[in-house]
Specification:
By secondary structure, this protein is mainly β. The chain is built from 1 helix and 15 strands. The strands form 3 sheets. Strands 1, 2, 3, 4, 5, 6 and 7 form a 7-stranded mixed beta sheet that branches. A 4-stranded mixed beta sheet has the order 11-8-14-15, with no helix packed on it. Strand 14 and strand 15 form a beta hairpin. This is DUF4249 family protein.
Length: 245
């Protein structure tokens, strides 16, 4: 009898110990990410946790890039979505997905050109015949000026100072709303003045910031860029995404 009781106690202790030692199942959350991108002329490769993502049977792609990823994210762990230049192996972008930010990555949009990576989706706007339309984005705002602003105000003018359009907020990650005016010249330049939002103060420094902008009849999707020239910070506006669409 003593042996039977001792065995029962030992079995109970082992059972209890095993229950204590086994961790509870980790919480999990499904992640569904709609990817819409564009790359020209670079050929890209997307990877999930280091593994190439196949799109329409291929692990390298250019021009329009669209797919949907579905996977499970464990609490306390992370998953990595990376974008590489498939020809030279250079990593262009990296996104860390975790248990708490899956909603933030329901849509992952990007636009990749040589030297420019935009975390946004680009659609060419419709502009009526005889009109000029502008949308603008400023992805590297503050890189050289060290401005803490997330957006700037833009006033587009003719060479004589007449106002053509105003942009309340030209930001880093999304194109501004479309502004339209009547086309007036093939050769006359237009200039964009940049200010702190809601003011007439330059967004950095004390001198007027005036950018010569390329103007084509129809739609224009202009990328503003801070650059450093001869020790001075300047802003360029010579890239039009429409040229690549």
């Amino acid at each position: 009898m003593k042996k039977i009781i001792a065995l029962f106690i030992l079995t109970g202790l082992l059972s209890c110990t095993d229950e204590v030692m086994q961790p509870y199942d980790k919480s999990q959350r499904p992640a569904e990410i709609n990817i819409k991108g564009y790359s020209k002329p670079d050929v890209l490769q997307l990877r999930l946790n280091g593994k190439p993502i196949s799109i329409n049977g291929s692990t390298s792609y250019t021009n329009t890039i669209e797919t949907k990823l579905s996977f499970v994210v464990d609490e306390g762990e992370t998953d990595q979505i990376e974008i590489f230049n498939n020809e030279n192996g250079k990593r262009i972008a990296n996104y860390t997905i975790n248990f708490n930010n899956t909603d933030h990555y329901k849509n992952l949009n990007f636009f990749n050109l040589p030297g420019i990576y935009l975390q946004t989706y680009v659609v060419k706007p419709q502009v009526n015949l005889g009109k000029v339309g502008f949308e603008m984005i400023f992805p590297n705002l503050g890189e050289f000026s060290h401005s803490p602003l997330q957006g700037v105000k833009g006033v587009l003018k003719k060479e004589n100072g007449d106002v053509l359009a105003e942009f309340d907020n030209i930001e880093k990650n999304n194109f501004s709303p479309l502004n339209v005016y009547s086309f007036f010249s093939v050769t006359a330049p237009v200039y964009l003045e940049l200010y702190k939002p809601g003011t007439t103060d330059p967004y950095f420094g004390s001198q007027l910031i005036k950018v010569k902008i390329k103007q084509d009849i129809g739609a224009n999707l202009i990328v503003l860029q801070e650059k450093q020239e001869n020790g001075n910070v300047v802003v360029a506006g010579d890239i039009d995404i429409v040229d690549y669409l």
